[in-house]
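Quick sanity check, Oxysterol-binding protein:
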Amino acid sequence: MADRGAAQDNSLYGALAGAWNYATTSISSFLGYEDLDVVNPQSSSAEKVDKVDADDQRQKAFVNYKDYIGRDITSLVTLPVWIMEPYTMLQKVAEIMEYTELLDRAAVTEDPYERLAWVTAFCIGPFGGNERTWKPFNPILGETFELDLGENSVRFLAEQVSHHPPIAAAHAENERWVYDIVSAPTTKFLGNSVDIYPVGRSRMRLRATGEVFSLVPPNSTAHNVIIGSTWVDCHGDFTVLNATTGAKASLYFTPCGWFGSGRYEVTGHIFDEEGRKVYALQGAWNSHLSMVRCNAEGEALPDAPTVELWKCKEKPKGDKYGFTHFSRFLNSGKGIAPLSSDSRRRPDRYALELGDHSAAGSEKYALEEKQRAERRERERRRETWAPRWFRTPAGDPPVYPGEYSPAECPMWEWTGAYLEHQRAPALPADADCVGKGFCPWQFPEIHEDGAGASGAQ
């Protein structure tokens, strides 16, 4: 990956949600973990900022952030809640689960190159929600987010496995496929824009064929983060490699040009194992993707039908944060009893959802203080922290062509324990877990309020 690093260092801008990850998933998560320059929102010096003052406050923020120009700000900057959405980075990672029917379709497709096209469409799907310009909350170490999509038996779990550097790992599966991701995005601040590099590792395995597919997504840029109307562009190469056979999908996300020319444009091909073009792909990363059988030059064959692989679902009208219907669903906690470490239980996220910026800031500060207290307690006891649902693998797992190296993105693997643990009974249909009982803590007894139930639920 030395060539990738060199290209970043020589670029003009050399992170959000997000990553995810997608990580990629995480386009609007362009600024990182809050661990420096802490301000207590309850103190007399803390400002109470309404969203109507956001433009003025963003411009004032430049005075504080100008020293970070040209640097990775993932772990350097503390941000106020008025630029945030009531959502977390782990929920951003989960947004790829919106179009799991495309992976189901791939699993039953006989043509190996059409199968690759359906996997590619699944990987494009979360970009439909990546125009959001609000920043998600950063997960607390040990925080989780779980999802059970009963209609096709999909179970998903994400966990924050590292705080410095910030890394999330996630796993999903059903009877037809398995999905794994490690998300460790980095950024570079240019003054009025932020480049987001989706450092990570995304893999999908189809149970019927045993094929493993590896995704390397494009970079993104958040423009006008200080002055002007903020907008997001995704640009560069997007590759889905069939690591088992060597076939691949290669797409190019056209950078937005003057007066919006080329914005959202996606073009590319499905290549066979010998590098020959089989299908031509065309679309827009915020709306659709289609394919057509092509000749060796990449031109559509006469009378070849065009197949729509993916179409972005209609979005809610007038949503303040630009949420999709699926992201709204990911924020809902009615009738479920997730782990006490689940993002939906966070009091700061919930306060922001209710529109109370002051309470959200206070709750966010309180959580960060507890996280620091946890670190000090570990040091005092000379203990270490380990994720509950993921582990570092033994030996040297394979790194597929185009993927980041283990030095750039550490390896994490799913333990499977989550699928076996005793789940809490479902809540009554009208009961809601949001904003209640959040406890990702290793030492809940050290916190003044008891911090809720143990994260080991």
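Posting the structure with no commentary besides this: The radius of gyration is 22 Å.
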